[in-house]
Write a structure and sequence with these properties.
heterodimer, A: alpha/beta, Rossmann fold, 2 domains, seven-stranded mixed β-sheet, 12 helices, B: Rossmann fold, five-stranded parallel β-sheet, two-stranded antiparallel ribbon, 7 strands, about 10% strand, globular, binds thiamine diphosphate, binds magnesium ion
């Protein structure tokens, strides 16, 4: 096994290329995915490797693009759609939520939609309110969609290959700030998969359990490192797929630590992470808690433009650090 | 400069009109150059979409509009905003994330609106402003305001469902609206050849029952003349017009564009069709201005931008403290 450190963009591209090589029915479509290489450079040279028929540049027409993917998926193809910013899934929401998500169930299983919709999400680029949202709960609340939120290159590769294999529509939410940074772990070569619906215990500790999604996993990792020097040891759990959600490792961890901190980028109100809290509250492990559950999430505001405002709008490493330390120190 | 100093009318109808058209095109050009510079120096963050090379379109269109007439704009919206009369300092201050910026630092380049000059706002969503302009026109009609609304949008936006739905509403309701397409030949990397199966985007008008015209988007006079006709049509209750202005963006789509989808020669060719010298020679030839006067106007624009930058740099950064209170408008007592 080689120790390949890839960026998330490279890992995602590698997964797409493996799927392209393995299955002729896989193709990529989206705005500027061709010669431009994708707005965030994810498809890069795929246009030159696979040609204009499999790396399909589209006009600016999100509803049409996703609808075309749904129709192609119903009819034997396996499309990967790239929506340039997750904010513009709004344009395509009918095809995502009313069509793709419901077809298999509604039609009594007669048809299914093997489609992956990849899209960059999140704040931190100064692109303001319509280009920076974290829309995890939009998708996670629709039965019939699987929702993947990778936090690192290795997971992104394995999860994307599983998503492409999956016979159902999968929404694959990639954080923009993660595209260009290498992960902490090497990315395995070859056609490897990570199953959907299995949470990952990123590190184990005994004082506190942190559940975080996407980029917040990386921020929380920094905090785990820092606090371990102070003698606070933390279990960090990354659900990786937020729908379906695997809570078992969270229950098991809380049984040991007795403390739970949950962190997400999106606004607190009705956010995805509240599902983790709800399931915890209804579980036998609730009795293991010795501290109130602490939630860190984005402010209930659109993402602002100016850097100092944007930073204030979503949890930062320092916020997680303060919250983690407080919960451990105050509840013994 | 205050919005009230805007001048309406044909750009060649008097030295004052010629001066206005030239000054505003220069203001847009210099503003965009300043933005590029601030970006390059790391003083501005986020992204930017520059309209260098396209200055004649918003300038010509807005010279046919009153302050009461409304516009909706795009991600490439600095030119529309300036042409409608916005304050340069508040624009730059917004890009620098300052409290005195148009959006108090909350919106940035893609979201500047200026209610005073009838600018309902730039838009981060391609096509997002078109139905909004139709709605503004509907309000004008229902409230008998007598104003028109203009939606600026790009060629790329014409392929969004929003264009289709808004165009049809405008047509069936005979709304006082102008659909102003700035056809700069590309939507990011998609050429109009690839994104359309028709050669002339104005052909789309017919399908909605909307009269459509092509104008030289780099000729402020041609733009104005057709804009004027469209405004009169709208104001007399005859309904919308589609104007397709042929133009070109010199710079990349945004800061990350490597221009892989077009040739240097093509860019060069269009740089030679620069709208500013074109108009400058026209007004000198017509005896409306001397060369020296034209040079002085360019300098005036440069000075105005420098002053706006200097003032903005010194201004107070936006404060995160008020963010939560900023989401909803308070109900009036
Ligand atoms: C709904 C939507 N889809 C995609 C984008 C990303 N995007 C921003 S500008 C742009 C190109 C727009 O082209 P056009 O309408 O021709 O305007 P131009 O940039 O040429 O001025 C794209 C694809 C977006 N902002 N909104
Ligand atoms: Mg365009």
């Amino acid at each position: 096994m080689s120790e390949r450190m890839l960026t998330m963009a490279e890992a995602i591209r590698e997964a797409m290329c493996i799927a392209f090589d393995e299955r002729p029915e896989v193709f990529l479509l989206g705005e500027d995915v061709g010669i431009y290489g994708g707005a965030f450079g994810v498809s890069a040279d795929m246009y030159h490797r696979y040609g204009a028929e499999r790396v399909l540049d589209t006009p600016i027409a999100e509803l049409g693009i996703v609808g075309a993917a749904v129709g192609a998926a119903l009819s034997g193809m396996r499309p990967i759609v790239e929506i340039q910013f997750s904010d513009f899934t709004a344009q395509a929401m009918d095809q995502i939520a009313n069509q793709a998500a419901k077809i298999h169930f509604m039609l009594g299983g007669a048809l299914h939609v093997p489609m992956v919709l990849r899209t960059p999400q999140g704040s931190g680029t100064g692109a303001a309110a319509q280009h920076s949202q974290n829309l995890e709960p939009w998708f996670a609340s629709v039965p019939g969609l699987k929702v993947v939120v990778p936090s690192n290159p290795a997971d992104a590769k394995g999860l994307l290959l599983s998503s492409i294999d999956d016979p159902n529509p999968v929404i694959f939410l990639e954080h923009k700030l993660l595209y260009k940074i290498p992960g902490r772990e090497p990315v395995p070569e070859g056609s490897t998969r990570i199953p959907l619906g299995v949470s990952k215990v990123v590190r184990e500790g005994k004082d506190l359990t942190i559940v975080a999604t996407g980029i917040m996993v990386n921020k929380a990792w920094e905090v785990c490192e820092k606090l371990s020097a102070e003698g606070i040891s933390i279990t960090l759990i990354d659900p990786r797929t937020i729908s379906p959600l695997d809570m078992q490792p969270v229950f098991e961890s809380v049984d040991k630590t007795g403390r739970l901190l949950v962190v997400q980028e999106g606004p607190a109100h009705a956010g995805f992470i509240n599902e983790v809290i709800a399931q915890m509250a209804g579980s036998a492990s609730f009795g293991s808690l010795i501290a109130p559950i602490k939630r860190l999430a984005g402010m209930n505001i659109p993402i602002p433009y100016a850097p100092q405002l944007e930073k204030a709008a979503v949890p930062q490493i320092e916020d997680i650090e303060i919250a983690a330390r407080e919960i451990v120190k105050n509840w013994r | 400069m205050s919005a009230q100093s805007l001048i309406m009318g044909h750009p060649m109808s008097s030295p004052a009109h010629a001066r206005h058209a030239l000054l505003y095109m220069w203001r847009i050009r210099k503003f965009e150059e300043a933005v590029e510079d601030l970006f390059g120096r790391g003083m501005m963050h986020g992204t930017m979409h520059l309209s260098i090379g396209q200055e004649a379109s918003p300038t010509g269109m807005c010279m046919a509009l009153t302050l009461q007439d409304q516009i909706t704009s795009t991600h490439r919206g600095h030119g529309h905003c300036i042409a409608k009369g916005a304050d340069l300092t508040r624009m730059i201050a917004e890009l620098l994330g300052k409290e005195i910026g148009y959006c108090g630092g909350r919106g940035g380049s893609m979201h500047i609106a200026d209610v005073e000059t009838g600018n309902l706002g730039a838009n981060g969503v391609v096509g997002g402003g078109i139905p909004i302009a139709a709605g503004a026109a509907l309000a004008s009609k229902m409230m008998k305001k007598g104003s028109v609304s203009v939606s600026f949008f790009g060629d790329g936006a014409m392929n969004e469902g929003a264009f289709h739905e808004a165009a049809n509403l405008a047509a069936i309701w005979k709304l006082p609206m102008i659909l102003f397409c700035e056809n700069n030949k590309y939507g990011m990397s998609s050429s109009t050849e690839k994104a359309f199966a028709i050669d002339n985007l104005a052909d789309r008008g017919k399908g909605y029952g909307i009269p459509a015209v092509n104008v030289d988007g780099n000729d402020v006079v041609d733009v104005y003349e057709q804009a004027k006709i469209a405004v009169e049509r709208a104001k007399s209750g005859e309904g919308p017009t589609l104007i397709v202005a042929e133009t070109y963006r010199w710079k990349g789509h945004s800061r990350s564009d490597k221009n892989l989808y077009r040739t240097k020669e093509e860019i060069e060719e269009w740089r030679e069709r620069d709208p500013i010298p074109k108009f400058t020679s026209k007004i000198i030839e017509a005896g409306l201005m001397t060369k020296e006067q034209c040079d002085a106007i360019a300098q005036e624009a440069t000075d105005a931008i420098i002053a706006a930058v200097n003032e903005s740099v010194k201004a107070k950064p936006a404060d995160p403290a008020g963010l939560l209170d900023a989401v909803f408008k308070k109900a009036s007592a």
